[in-house]
Amino acid sequence: MMLEERLGEIEALVSPVLREHGLTLVDLEWRRAGRRWILRFYIDRAAGSGQERVSIGDCQRFSDAVGDLLDVSDLIPGSYDLEVSSPGLDRELRKERELRWAVGKAVRCWVREAQDGRTEFAGRLQVVTEATLTLEESGGRVRELPRVGVTKVRLELPFPRRG
To answer: Which terminal Cβ of the chain has fewer Cβ within 10 Å, N or C?
Structure first.
């Protein structure tokens, strides 16, 4: 079975647990770290859950519930380490799922070719399409960045940067 198919099956299996806990899946990784395999979930609070950020307790409860579920499902042969984490304050957004999750959040984008003499842009991510990322910059200006030219996208830190 291909990796993407396996991750899709794992996501389908844990989706009810996410909903039950008022969480959403930001990303799911399966990778080798030395001799061990790691299955890593990045979770966040679901929109409208009434809480702003996922807590350590949320991660622990989700880990306990999902660990048991994965063990009985037998989707993953052999041993592995299960990790559950929040997306992080300044997480780099690499996958389509992460970009869709970040709509409405403050982001910083870097582009290959300068626009208006700049290669770095910050604002609230408004729209994600196959062709563009649309940001609302401070002052209300809307800027469309061609996806093909975007080199990196990060969540913006929730406090002012120094220097």
So the answer is: C
